[in-house]
Request: fold
Amino acid sequence: MDAEGTGGHPVEPPPLRPRGTIRGRHLVERSLVGRRAYRRSQLVADPVAHRDLAVHGYHAGPVILDEGARASLRSAMDAWLAASPPAGGGFRSSFEPEPTPAGRHARKSVIEHLVPAVAALVTPEAVVGPSVFQCKPPGPEGRLSAHQDAFVVDEREDYGLHAWVALSDITLRDGPLFVLPGSHRYATWTRISSPGDEFGTLHGAIERHARVLEVRAGQVVWFDHATIHGSLENQGNDLRAAVSAFVVPSRRQLTIPIPSTVSDPRCVDVLGIDARDVCADLSTLRLDNIIEQVQLDLLCFGPRSVGLTARLHAALHRSAPGVPIPAGLRSGARR
Ligand SMILES: O=C(O)CCC(=O)C(=O)O
Reply:
């Protein structure tokens, strides 16, 4: 063995997907073409939900958690919150890079109560995995600006979905979700879900064209991981809670972006995991199967391109679910 333990064989670096530059034309062109993956594979069984997902990138579905399931999930979430008190008053998700006992219990409760309820609504082509609790305290700090979730499948070929479920009724004033209709068609650039603000000057245009979704306790909202979305300030008095799962094609590899071993900050390693292991104990997963390195794409378009694409989408595909965000609830609104 040599010093690097390679037995003298050179170690091949994983293939590199080079950076692309996304300009305004890309938004319009991709928006007109749509995602081929939705024509090839149906993950959610309800045809109306599938159509809304293909066209708009989201769908408000039925109530899928009864009162008992919601109470069990809420109690696991409260135990996790008590064990990990927040540093500030902002939005929190129960994602933990190093799971604590309360975090593991919270994940177990999502696997026990939410995953089967979501699995009952998907096709045999799909597999469902647990995601996180999303807690939004009252006040402006809890607002979540428009963003996208990280890709967990290769979005050039497939799509991945979030099943987001409210744990109580959520009205316009309780910190509801908002989504930009059709954005999953053009927003499949390589990205991670970053704590930074990837959309800088675009928020005004995004929020002008977004739709906001009021939901009932236990109701599911499906959205594509590429769909641009966020959530408004909680102007109520209580913590607003939601819980989610993700849905991916069962026969494909999950492709999870993780911080790169390369020094370039806009480069991530892509971990390959068998999609059927989505509910496995995280400690048993093989975390060294780096299948690719990806340079995150550069976004070089402005609010006018976002506005034009959104208007085009609205003209071609009417009836996007939800209502426009009232001007007084947008991020630039004066109080
Ligand atoms: O729960 C929310 O308010 C937003 C959730 C969200 O943005 C996400 O799950 O990515």
Observations:
- Residues 53 and 103 are 31 Å apart (CA to CA).
- The mean pLDDT is 92.
- The longest strand covers residues 126-136.
